[in-house]
Amino acid sequence: MMKKYLLYWVALVVLIFAACQKELSFELPNTPAEGSLQSDITGDCLPKTVSGAYAVGAALGAANTISIDVNVTKVGTYTISTDTINGYYFRATGSFTRTGVNSVTLRGNGAPFAAGTNNFVVSFDSTFCDVQVTVTQPGVGTLAGSPNACALITVAGGYTPGAVMGAGNTATVQVNVTTAGAFTITTDTVAGVWFTYSGALGAGAQPVVLTANGTIPAATTTGDKTFKVKLGTSTCTFLVTVAAPGVATLGGAGGACTPITVNGTYNTGSALTATNTIVVNVTVTTPGVFNITTNTVNGYSYAFSGNIAATGPVTLTGTGTPVAAGTDNFTVTLAGTPASTCTFPNTVNAAGVAVYTVDCTSAVQDGLYEQGTQLNASNTVDINVNVTVIGTYNITTTAVNGMTFSSGPGTFTTTGPQTVTLRATGTPTTAGANTITIPIAPTCTFDVTVDPPLPTYHWQFTVTNAPQTIYRGENDGVALGSNPPIPGTSFVLLGSNALQSDALAIALIDLDGTINNGETYSTSATITNVAIFSYDLPSPLTDTYSADPSITGATMTFTVTNHNVGTKTITGTFSGTAKNAAGQVITITTGTFTATYP
Fold first, then answer.
1. From the centroid of its chain, how far is CA 380?
2. What is the spatial distance between Cα 363 and Cα 359, in angstroms, rounded to a whole number?
3. Is the pLDDT of residue 20 over 80?
């Protein structure tokens, strides 16, 4: 049945591709951007910011995002995405207009179906990095003051016609949490602005800060605007006053900020807190509402939004996480017509040494471990750690059965529970269970199972994209013959590895003959000698490499090196390019197969 479905699918692809050729010939393809995801030595995205609440059964929305940095070497269009885990994934599309480090925000899609920590692989232009997202059970609570005016409401920031909402624009409401968990709190949209919160809350009465989004239209009239807050079926209302903007200039406008005070400590990988501020001087001509911001440099920035009544110092609060040590040069902008600007430098220090414990009971083995086979980048163990002090780390296990597992040197950028990927090196010499020790006080152990080698490998190929990996296995099903109404002869090979945690599919379709020695088949062909290639990576990687006539920019060539009709055996080679689920090009070399059909 799989053979029948596969062949019909190939035939449909050929017909659709041929029909679309004329239309496609008139389209000018976009130029894809090039670059690399920023990551630490363990493969974790650096920096990585997870926003929003993730609850079982709750559909993800605009507040559910992950932000990562990309070092762009060539401008152009991009698609950056993750794999799909636990029913949801993240994705972003757009265009890079400048080279260097760019921050990209990927929006979540789908709905988690189980609680726990999910490790996502972000991919862009053949580079990869990891981000961990924690899913909790949904919380239950009510808004104080519901269903009337919100009790104990506090509105911060400035709201003027034409103002763009920033970090300083917030509304703090009181929430009575009866069941701890993940919460999403939103308002309606009024005058182009809405407020949101998404995150986890513990039980009890507590204040929750909602962040403003959007832009107030320039034509908006001044005065009070009424917003309705929603938490499940609980609602309450509050007022935001839209006021006329003030007029002022920054001290040192046009040059260095005078005076300037930078507060707080700045370390690579350490998120800024309320102590990280700058103080600038503002000369006020007309009191009113002001928005003062800086550009984002090295992963962090500063902002102020609110009323200023008189000339004097103004404090801007920092947000973000510094990426690298060194001196960062900022520009402060006081919005107005014209805008007032000044500049200042700030120094970021190198990170210290992290303090953490390792939970070996959480260890999850990935990859194929075979006796006598050298381990590669696909051989890993994911393990949970609890970080109490951020900083650098280096984890290396004792050597057992020719194998060593390590992660680092790297940097923990946040405290609390998180996942580390230990990457294996060496060659196991015997099959069976192995107890691996991590010699970090307190020491702990985990088990890794080494399989005996397969008696025969029917197929194998190498993916040269970093990390370079060899995949191989046995045949699960082979077929050769005709399949009316499709003319000619079709050859299909289905295979998997020793653990049956992957799936290979190869199809060669000769529409005007049979499968002969020396013939070549291409995934770019549309008339005859058509090929299709599909490979589902070993679980839990959840990605697929594909090449067929419907996929542009992916071309693989298969060569039949021998077809022995007497033994009913077909052997061949293949190489070329495929594409993964995110559309990145995957280079495949040294592919071979041997198949005996019934």
1. 19
2. 8
3. no
Measure the CA–CA gap between 486 and 214, rounded to whole angstroms. 56
How is the chain split among helix, strand and coil, in percent rounded to 5?
Answer: 5, 60, 35
Contacts of 38 by beta carbon, 8 Å cutoff, 6+ apart: 45, 46, 47, 68, 69, 70, 71, 101, 129, 323
pLDDT at 350 over 60: yes
Q: How far is CA 575 from CA 177, 465, 508, 587, in A?
A: 58, 13, 14, 8
> How confident is the model over 384-399, as pLDDT tens digits?
998 887 778 889 999 9
Tell me, yes or no, if the two domains 247-348 and 355-450 fold the same way. yes
pLDDT in tens, 187-228: 999 999 999 988 878 889 999 999 999 999 989 998 999 999
Give CA separation, 528 vs 211, 488, 511, 549, in Å.
59, 9, 5, 11
pLDDT given at position 267: 81
pTM beyond cutoff 0.70: no
Q: Per the structure block, which two tokens stand in for 256?
A: 């260095």
Is 140-242 CATH 2.60.40? yes
Burial of residue 292, with CB atoms counted within 10 A of its CB: 0-12 exposed, 13-18 middle, 19 or more buried: buried
Say how far apart CA 523 and CA 14 lie, in whole Å: 10
Strands of the sheet with 355-366, listed across from one edge = 355-366, 380-389, 416-426, 403-412, 391-396
pLDDT number for residue 486? 64
| 496 or 63, higher pLDDT | 496
**Which tokens is 303 given?**
């902002």
- Tell me the mean pLDDT in the region 54-70: 84
Domain 34-135 in this protein, CATH class: mainly beta
Q: What is the DSSP letter of 336?
A: S
The domain 355-450 is classified under which CATH number: 2.60.120, 3.40.710, 3.30.1050, 2.60.40? 2.60.40
**Three-point CA angle 128, 130, 132, nearest 5°:** 160
Domain ranges of the chain: 34-135, 140-242, 247-348, 355-450, 454-596
- Give dist(CA 432, CA 369) in Å, integer: 10
What letter does residue 245 receive in the DSSP assignment?
B
Beta bridge partners, 14, equal: none
**Residue 454, CA distances (Å) to 387, 538, 582 in order:** 41, 17, 32
What CATH number is given for 247-348 in this structure? 2.60.40.10
